[in-house]
Amino acid sequence: MYINLNDLGDIGGKKNVSMEIEIADLNFRDQEVEIKDDIKLEIEIYHTSDSFLVEGEMEVNLILSCSRCLENYRSSALIEISEEVLKKDMEDLEKLFIDEIIVDNIILSLPIKPLCSEDCKGLCPQCGQDLNEAECDCEIESIDPRLEKLKEFYDD
Ligand SMILES: [Zn+2]
Ligand SMILES: [Zn+2]
To answer: Which of 5, 68, 94, 118 fits a disulfide with 122 by CB distance 3.0 to 4.6 angstroms?
Structure first.
């Protein structure tokens, strides 16, 4: 999606842009990021001598996959945008390609370890049961590290 810069005026000019944009789902670090609704963008664009400044925020609704229980969950965020697009990097000074700015800012906002909730119990490492839904009967062995040493000794 291009934003028209024709009506921005000379250096020092600015304009408000309020729009909804559809962005395709992303794939980032092997993680599918589904973009649920159109993105609500509220920005101001300033014309400077060698660039266009883009300042504002956007509202995004994503579907992420929890790194503990692997369930998909909905994540809504208000993301601040502050970008400078240099004129020398633009093909056409009358059009600003906004998709790349949006995608970059979504990726920057993604959690390294997405969690459906802070206290997600995750999956049982033995049987794979989702421990948020039900307990399982596995006994998770936790051997005292001192006993572990002793065990190694006898195993030899
Ligand atoms: Zn989870
Ligand atoms: Zn289990």
So the answer is: 68
Grouping H, G, I as helix, E, B as strand and the rest as coil, residue 56 is strand
> How far apart, in whole angstroms, are the C-alpha atoms of residue 113 and residue 87?
36
**Ligand 1 geometric centre to CA of 21 (Å):** 29
Residues 6+ apart with CB under 8 A from 92: none
**DSSP summary character for residue 130:** B
Domains identified in the chain, total number: 2
Residues whose Cβ atom is located within 5 A of ion ligand 2: 124, 126-127, 129, 136, 138
Q: Are residues 106 and 147 in the same domain?
A: no
Q: Which residues form the domain of 94?
A: 2-120
Q: pLDDT tens string for the chain (156 positions)?
A: 899 999 998 999 999 999 999 999 998 877 789 999 999 999 999 999 999 999 999 999 999 999 999 999 999 999 999 999 999 999 999 999 999 999 999 999 999 899 999 999 999 999 999 999 999 999 766 656 666 666 666 666
Q: How far is the CA of 128 from the centre of ligand 2 (A)?
A: 6
Q: Are residues 44 and 114 in the same domain?
A: yes
Same domain, 9 and 43: yes
Residues 31 and 57 grouped into a single domain: yes
